[in-house]
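> forwarded from #structure-qc
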């Protein structure tokens, strides 16, 4: 392989590896329960269990903070802001139109 082609290929692979390394993922197990009142759908009750790496990252960020402290509240707000941007990982469609949800009554982490 010619030195110019080898250098170009090396540079391309180096740039590609930086892009891949900069995109972290979280894996979240979801449990969802439909909540109804008077035989009408009113809410989805969800429980999210995050993977070990995401949990360890949050624990590291919290340090020795006590449960319920301002640090934990800030971390919870950051997590909720991220999932809000993903529509709580949920989409509901009715008669061909996407249903828009109101803000939940209770958010706990």
């Amino acid at each position: 392989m010619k030195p110019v082609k080898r250098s170009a290929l090396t540079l391309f692979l180096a740039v590609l590896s930086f892009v891949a390394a900069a995109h972290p993922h979280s894996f979240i197990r979801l449990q969802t329960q439909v909540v109804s009142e008077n035989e009408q759908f009113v809410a989805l009750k969800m429980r999210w269990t995050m993977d070990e790496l995401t949990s360890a990252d949050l624990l590291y960020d919290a340090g020795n903070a006590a449960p319920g402290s301002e640090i934990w509240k800030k971390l919870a707000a950051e997590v909720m802001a991220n999932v809000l941007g993903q529509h709580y990982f949920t989409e509901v469609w009715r008669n061909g139109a996407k249903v828009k949800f109101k803000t939940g009554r209770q958010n706990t982490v």
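QC bot note: Residues 18-23 have pLDDT under 50 and may be disordered. Residues 26-98 form one domain.
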